[in-house]
Amino acid sequence: MTQKKTPDPTKAESSAPNTAQSTATDKDFHALRSAYAQQGHHLHSVTSKDGATTYWAERWGLVRYLPSLHDAALFLAQIGGRL
Q1: Bridge partners for 18 per DSSP
Q2: Which residues form the domain of 81?
Q3: Is residue 83 within 8 Å of 40, Cβ to Cβ?
Q4: Which residues contact 4 (CB under 8 A, 6 or more apart)?
Q5: Is 55 within a domain?
Q6: Does the residue 62 lie in any domain?
């Protein structure tokens, strides 16, 4: 059974996401997604409960795991796309 982490009362922790960072990330993700679409690929993402986001590119049923947006941008260049 998984034990829950007890929050430290001496530290101010927030469960709310950093909105400035998430807005920039969303903007970057949508720009990359449209660039992938121009190359005939699909860019997907999923965010886990702990806040980690995973990305992957897909075309013709083949999937490429991309651990970060930076890796997604590098793969876009590899397939001939540009931002």
Answers
A1: none
A2: 43-83
A3: no
A4: none
A5: yes
A6: yes
| pLDDT tens readout for residues 29-73 | 899 999 999 999 999 998 889 888 889 999 998 899 999 889 999
SS3 9: coil
Residue 20 maps to a domain: no
pLDDT at 21 over 60: no
Nearest to 36 by CA among 68, 71, 79, 65: 79
**Burial (CB count within 10 angstroms: exposed 0-12, middle 13-18, buried 19+), residue 79:** middle
The radius of gyration of the chain's CA atoms, rounded to the nearest angstrom, is: 16
Picking from 61, 53, 57, the residue whose alpha carbon sits closest to that of residue 80 is 57
What's the number of domains the chain is made of?
A: 1
